[in-house]
Amino acid sequence: MTTQGSAHGPSQRQLRVGEEIRHVVARALERGDLHDRVLDTVPVTISEVRVSPDLRHATAFVMSLGGVRLDEVLEALGRNAWAFNKMIAHSLRLRYSPTLKFIADPSFDEASHIDSVLRRPEVARDLGDRDDEDADEDEHGA
Q1: CB atoms within 10 A of CB 87
Q2: Is 46 helix (H, G, I), strand (E, B) or coil?
Q3: Pair 22, 41 in one domain
Q4: Are 59 and 9 in the same domain?
Q5: In a shared domain, residues 117 and 62
Q6: 117 in the same domain as 74
Q7: Which of 12, 89, 118, 130 suits a disulfide with 97, CB 3.0-4.6 Å?
C-alpha cells in the first residue's frame, strides 16, 4: 500500500507546506535575519522546497547567483538550519516543524546544458530548417 502523494506525486498539502516554507526561508534571507557573513554577501535563490508525505522532512533546492560560492552558501545554510527551523515552527501551524536540509538545485545546470545543446551548429541548422517549414505551411494555409 502506498501513502497518499508518493505514487502520484506530492499531495496538495505537501505542495502548500513546501511553498510556505520556501517563503519563510526566502524572507529570512532577504531581510538578513541570520547575520551570516556568507548569506549576507551572496544572493541566494530558493527555487523549491519539497516536503515528505509525513511533513517531518523538507528539502530546499537552492542556487547562489551565478553559482558563485555555492559550496560556502550550502555550508552556511546548513549551519543556520536550526534558525530556519525555528522560524518555520513560529510561522506555520503544524504538529511538527519539518527538519530542513539544503541542496544545490540541479535544474539550473540542466537548463544550461539544454541551452548549450540548442546552440550547437548542427542543432541550430535543424531548428532553422524546421522554422522554414513552419513558415511555408503558414504561407500556404496548411
Answers
A1: 20
A2: strand
A3: yes
A4: yes
A5: no
A6: no
A7: 89
Q: Cell 538545485 sits at which residue?
A: 105
Domain extent at residue 139: 106-142
Q: What is the pLDDT of residues 12-35, one digit of tens each?
A: 999 999 999 999 999 999 999 999
User: Can you read off the three cell numbers belonging to residue 29?
Assistant: 534571507
Cα separation, 60 vs 36, whole angstroms: 18
Decide if 48 contacts 105 (C-beta within 8 A). Answer: yes
- Supply the pTM of this predicted model: 0.71
What is the distance in angstroms between the CA of the first residue and the CA of the last residue of the chain? 51
- What are the strands, taking DSSP E only, across 1-142? 44-51, 57-64, 99-104
Rounded CA separation 83/138 (Å): 58
> At residue 68, what are phi and psi to the nearest 5 degrees?
-70, 130
pLDDT tens readout for residues 76-96: 999 999 999 999 999 998 888
Looking at the structure of the chain, the number of domains it has is 2
Same domain, 53 and 116: no
